[in-house]
Amino acid sequence: MGDYDGGRFDIQIMLAVKSFNSSVAQDTKPDTSTTGGTSNSLMNPATILGLETKLQTLQNLKNDTNKEFVGAEIDRLTSKLDKGGLPLPPRLVGNVFEQTVDAVCQWVENDPDVSVIGLWGSEGLGKTAVARHIHAKLDSHPDFFVSWVDVPPAFSIDDLQNEIAESLHVDISYDVDHTKRMTQLLKPLEAYKTAFKKSVLILDSVSTTPIPPDQLGIPSDSCTIILTTRSLELCQLTGCQKTVQLEPLSFEDSWELFVEKHGTAILPRLDAIARSIVRECDGVPLGIVTLARCLSLKHVFKREWNAALGKLTAEGGGGGVDQSDPMPTKLFRILRCCYDLLKDWELQRCFIYCGLHAEDSITTRDLMMFSLIDDGVIYSLSLPTTIKKGHEILNKLEDLCLVEGGTDLKGRKYVFMNKSLSDLAMKIAKSRYFLK
Fold this sequence. Notes:
By secondary structure, this protein is of the alpha/beta class.
């Protein structure tokens, strides 16, 4: 491994990663100008005015209450305004998605009897993307306080309360008394209740456990909860008064999304194959976007397009998938096809590693880079070269929509992997490395 041994010099690696992070990340930032991978973050005058009005409201609240959590929210919105707005998720395709965003925002704004709203549907249909657009729309509105929580796959009520508290800029992790925790959690919501028309809490990816708001310590008159989940039953058990089922895209919308994400015009000799591939994606945005990006790789020629179509139309699960697995068989075949199209063992290895370490949860980019180097997943003749290579690989995986990247409320860069993609990484790791 050259002149350093990953695994022995943990501190040196972490310091080097932090030192190189900003400069290397800027030098190797992926070009999303043609892929549509990241929406334009520049804000229009109405959005700027909304944020400025909200900041003034918060400043008045801080002057009246002198609460630290209000100051932290002011810092977050000020940073957002200074940067011209944080990047939005990719543009939604299809009128149904836009109508869903508008409908949920209307319920939040105009229906006082709705305190819990559920967005549900199969994996890969864009529930999180819709929720992000709802968050962006409400977050720039002067009448609403909005917070976002990524719900862990397995959690206790205390764990979830800690996550919610962090999004509200308070710390309750030190307190073990349930009543005191609920009281502390309620303080910022009660404060914002006096300053804003409504507070909104978005809980993304609620997987298996219902979350009655009263168990969290959130009265219905203090906050509107919006949750995303795969299960209508879970929405009902959580007490949702309104639910929206996300449906697959039409073929026309699927084709529009595929062409947009592919980034370049589809060659005439590939048009028929491409349309057949899109039909096989069954209107699932996750599969369409990821496959479009991977088919845009420079080394992918007509034979790879034909091979991809063959894999998608093959009978049975393909790839050794267990029919009892929670991931739909067709979606597995689509994502496995994307993995095979990489044809780069280093990219594939890093994809698997990210899937095992960033499953449905936020991991800072620094920590992911440190882990990749320390575990010997990426290496080169020198540590600086290895870090540069690591950024290039992570940026490539982001550009191919195999991992997501962004910046959290504290300005830290993070990486994240959709659960279906992390499930694929786990399946491949089990078959290749005999993991249990």
